[in-house]
Amino acid sequence: MSLVIAIDGPAASGKGTIAERLAQHYGLPHLDTGLLYRAVGIETLRETGEIAEAAAADAARGLDVGGLGHPELRGGHAGEAASRVAAYPAVRDALLKLQRDFATQPGGAVLDGRDIGTVICPGADVKIFVTAAPKIRAERRWKQLIGQGETIAFEDVLADIKRRDARDSGRDTAPLARAPDATLLDTTEMDISQAVDAARRIVEAARAPKGTSRGG
Questions:
Q1: How far apart, in whole angstroms, are the C-alpha atoms of residue 49 and residue 47?
Q2: Could you give the C-alpha distances from 82 to 37, 40, 125, 183, 184, in angstroms and in order?
């Protein structure tokens, strides 16, 4: 039986870790689609020194998904580049088939990003929109970056989070938005274990036959 889980949400909401844990729990492949855009952004900067749509689209069309595990893609610089290239329709078009092919493989998959439930997998079996207060998300990202050896002020991370939220939600093509049939999961007051357990219960509730419920 196939199971496709679509998880969306803003930066540092916890969606990536939740998606990864759900994939492990259900034995499904996982794609962090944000890494696709991070890779495109970094490659564009490497090739041209700036972010422009034509160059970014070329990078997207030639993307090597084998390099998505590179530590450079987890840094703040890559996150900012990703948010910028993700606003380009040509980039999103170039990556659309790759993401949909991943989602439709036998058995299903777990994908997380900004437009999974609205654009990439509108027919997903389970849709979850993960969010948290901006200050909490900034604190999480700041701790992550400090742990990776970066030197950055918390205030700068918070400003970046707010800037990316505005850009991701305000773009014309595939903006960050909660699908009408997605379940909202606010992780502001949760640690990661609590958030993952809440997400798992959402999945189980969606899979349960109508008129029944499943315990935790």
A1: 6
A2: 5, 7, 27, 26, 24
CA–CA separation, 101 vs 202, rounded Å?
25
> What's the whole-number mean pLDDT along residues 39-65?
95
DSSP E strands in 16-161: the ranges are 30-32, 108-113, 126-131
pTM > 0.70: yes or no: yes
Q: Give the Cβ contact number of residue 40 at 10 Å.
A: 30
Residue 216 has pLDDT above 50, yes or no: no
Q: Which of 192, 9, 173 is nearest to 93 (CA)?
A: 173
Which three-class secondary structure state does DSSP give residue 31? strand
Of 3-7, 74-78, 190-194, the poorest mean pLDDT is in 74-78
150-167 b/e with 16+ CB inside 10 Å = b? eeeeeeebbebbbebbeb
Q: Kindly tell me the burial class for residue 97, based on how many C-beta atoms sit within 10 Å of its own C-beta (0-12, 13-18, 19 or more).
A: exposed
Dig out the tokens for 149 from the structure. 């050896």
Angle at 83 between CA 11 and CA 99, to 5 degrees: 85
CATH numbers and ranges of domains, the chain = 3-199 (3.40.50.300)
